[in-house]
Design brief:
Elements (H helix, E strand, L loop, with lengths): L2 H28 L17 H29 L5 H23 L3 H30 L2
């Protein structure tokens, strides 16, 4: 997978999560268990599993612009180093793992897995950004 394909995969993951949220919300409204106004932004609502899905989606969306900026900058600068080609794959995989751990439970093991995947993503994005900057500055 190229870095651009990884970027699209990251965006598709965000779309999948928001689609799942839409299905849950829409289903609850359609069967009359909730009103459309029962989903206030920024306030915990719904059951634990629903709220974990909501947070997994928001965590994904928060990181998408950062990942996108780094990948697109690298592509524009014609970065093609082994690290630039590898790290986007690591980031997307870690994002999916983090989301799945978030969805699975709120127990310590899941939280630790989620945090580990988050650290892998952040460290990989830093390394990816440094790789792009090295190319941009000729270092």
């Amino acid at each position: 997978m190229s870095p651009l394909v990884c970027l699209v995969a990251f965006a598709l993951w965000a779309l999948l999560l928001v689609g799942a949220l839409g299905l849950v919300r829409g289903g609850l409204v359609l069967v009359g268990r909730r009103r459309p106004t029962d989903f206030p932004g920024g306030v915990q609502h719904g059951g634990d599993a629903y709220w974990r899905l909501n947070r997994a989606h928001l965590n994904t969306v928060e990181n998408l612009p950062i990942f996108g900026a780094i990948v697109l900058s690298g592509v524009v600068l014609h970065v093609a180093t082994p690290m630039f080609l590898l790290l986007p794959k690591v980031i997307v995989c870690a994002r999916v793992v983090q989301s799945l751990a978030h969805l699975s439970s709120g127990r310590s093991l899941a939280i630790n897995a989620r945090f580990t995947a988050f650290i892998v993503q952040v460290a990989s994005m830093f390394a990816l950004a440094i790789e792009v900057l090295r190319r941009a500055t000729g270092s």
